[in-house]
Amino acid sequence: MGAEKFDLNATVSAIGQACTALFCHALFDAALHGLAVALTVGLVGLILSQRRQRFGKPLMAVSAKLAMFCAALLLPGLIALITSGHLPAVGVFQFSSLGFVVFWGLISLHLSAEEMNFEWFS
To answer: Are 108 and 66 contacting, i.e. CB atoms less than 8 angstroms apart?
Structure first.
């Protein structure tokens, strides 16, 4: 009935692996979906710009901002992918593409409203 000893090194290692999985794998997947949403918003903005609609320019600006932010989020996972050949395992956690697309859609909606407000009323 001896009490097990606390292993600080194993605990720190487990926390490090969880953080690596979060920053490399989870943010990589989120950033890929964000880039897809940014591309879609950019294409809609380009089409509207060609038709001389006033929504085109703000949507193009939102697309650029969203793409730059997602590219920054993509870097840790890309580095892990290049150095080890695969992304770190996230255990039993599962990602939902629909959740990521809705998340980035809401962010792009907010950014679009801010950009249109700035563009039209300043």
So the answer is: yes
